[in-house]
Give the backbone structure.
Amino acid sequence: TQVRVSQAHDSACQQVAGAALYIDDIPEPRGTLQVYVAQSPHAHARILQCELDDVAHQPGVAAVVTLEDIPGVVDVSCIHAGDEPVFAQGTVQFLGQPIYAVAAETLDAARLATQHARIEYEPLPAVLTVEQAMAQQSFVLPPRKIKRGDPDTALQGAKHRLQGSLRTGGQDHFYLESHISLAVPEDDGGMLIYCSTQNPSEVQSLCARVLDLPDAAVKVQVRRMGGAFGGKETQPAQLAIIAALVACKTGRPAKVRLDRDDDMRMTGKRHAFVIDYDIGFDDQGLIEGVRFVQKVRCGYTADLSGAVADRGVLHCDNSYYLANVAVESYRCRTNTVSDTAFRGFGIPQGVMGIERAMLDIAQHLGLDPLEVRRRNLYGPGRDQTHYGQTLSNMILPEIIDQLVEESRYDERRQAVQAFNQTHRYLKKGIALTPVMMGISFTRLHLNQGGAFINIYKDGSIALNHGGTEMGQGLFIKVAQIVAHELGVGVEKVRITATTTEKVPNTSATASSAGSDLNGMAARDAALKLKGRLSEVACRHFGAEAEAIVFQDGHVQAGEQRISFEKLVGLAYLERTSLSATGFFKTPDIHFDNDTFHGHPFLYFAYGAAVSEVLVDTLTGEYRVERVDILHDVGRSLNPAIDIGQIEGGFIQGMGWLTSEELHWDDKGRLRTHAPSTYKIPSVGNRPDVMNVKLMENPAFRSATPYHSKAVGEPPLMLAVSVYQALLEAASEVVPRPAMDAPITPERVLLAKPMAGAKQACAKGLGRE
Ligand code: LUZ
Ligand code: MOS
């Protein structure tokens, strides 16, 4: 069998050896121009005058490209909102916004030439924060308000009631490979674009709109990305289009490649949220009513912000039954770079609100927060979400029980309490938090996948599908599926680059659904080919179709056997089509966007983590000493890849919540635009002990490849346990600490009690 076994990533050896080719490694076609994109120096300003003649006359400069060079539509918005011009139009809307582009023989020449631009701006007042946007009612999309039950009556009637507020920061994707596109003009007026994108079809169609070409004249190809994390779901289009505009204007290939600082200033990030909550509960900690107000910083355009903010609303429950709940979600427009998809897509932020409330409830009642979490979990008779979906395969109670036992949670919690009683300045915290993520794109039409398989007459197999490889191991998983169905070793399946020429109209590789959608589509294609080969085998063996078995590189019927290659050779001679497309659309999902009600998800992925931290309250420094994770991937297609995704997702989530801080100053300048100031987790931040285990889940059945579950995003939310453990440790010295995310050491040091904190919560010795 080729599935449900660990197989190394298909590119692991090349990647480790530095031999894997990324777009910047492709030998440049003769005459390739390098493109520098000039950026706005203001957060918000009117462009009074833009004089670029001197730029065009600088040494080495081949072309200057502006709005006037656009033959088609000026907008690159993924939802065609008309709010995202290729270059600033009349006004600049954020600091770093593209104004025009210079193409030259070298990147240095292009960049130097921009110093000769004479652009006059009239600075305008800028909206930089969520608070300013709320005050001015500055929104990219109308607010969303949803409700179930009667939260106001429940809140008024509840024995206990608490209010609070927290902020979660943005996050830069910090993929190792920054944005890059190479556009090559073709002799028939078409354009070939090599682009580091999760979404080749969208780059294709937006580029065609801007160039005023039919989609079929634009081809987009990507073999692999050096990481993406959502940052390449919509963001590549604008830069690919700028490369294509240069190629169009000059007739020469053109490359746009952002350096790290430009990438961080110019491209979108995770949405920062401000979350206010009001929660009513009984003596047992059972939630009776809750209200959330989620204020979402979206930057200057809508982009994916509607879908991201909706995910925050959908997942405000994390995994808890909220009988009476209201959520208001405000999509704030600010003069900052447009925020975009980032692994988790609004879910981590939604989860942060309810998990903070869980801790408040526990501390208010003097209970173990895990007990409060357990009591509020979805369960029998309490299994319908606030958007109307009834849960299935809800295995969180089993996951939590098993994790508590394997991590020795109870014993360690007592040890942590004992430690805190005997240590004045060092404090520990331990927290277990669950995860529940709905799997499917919330926009129905995106839930489709396509594949294309060729078998050549020597028996070799070339696999293509609509998914993109960003390091996550999608390609090996889909190859395993095809190998499994055709009964050959996975090494026999040749993996080919994603291209819009082979599979059209694909969705972004996003929503954690890459293996589900493309794996099922590839399986469909493989089964078609297997059916045709079976017919040939039936004739060859004189056997019935039911007797034909494909395995171990052979096709057999009873005692008779022939190699896969030989059978393919026979099939060719018999004039059999050895090429097939495959298709998949997710069944059984529906959602009414207006009433916010339905069954949007094919299934849910579950997991839980326990994190233990040690904090030095005199300096604010801390360590994550131990993490135990138990995560549900259904029946894993490839346990090694899945565990890698869980480790990576957790660490990336931990970075978001602990060290990665985006800081914009009062002029709207991003001051943390390089690794010198923006701190992603490094080897030194790895938890001292990190145990990751997959939950056995044989009961799961779904229209997914061999009943596997998505794994890309859910584990990111496991890192909320680190945040909670830090809050618990800080609570030893500051009652109900108001600590926004990320909890940097500075934030630990400066922690203050949240408004309304009960002094009685402070068990520690305290700072005065
Ligand atoms: N991307 C998207 C996503 O376009 N729609 C989604 O629902 C989604 N969910 C998670 C991550 N990316
Ligand atoms: Mo996404 S956040 O590109 O799944």
Q: What stands out?
A: Residues 514-541 form the longest helix (28 residues). The radius of gyration is 27 Å.
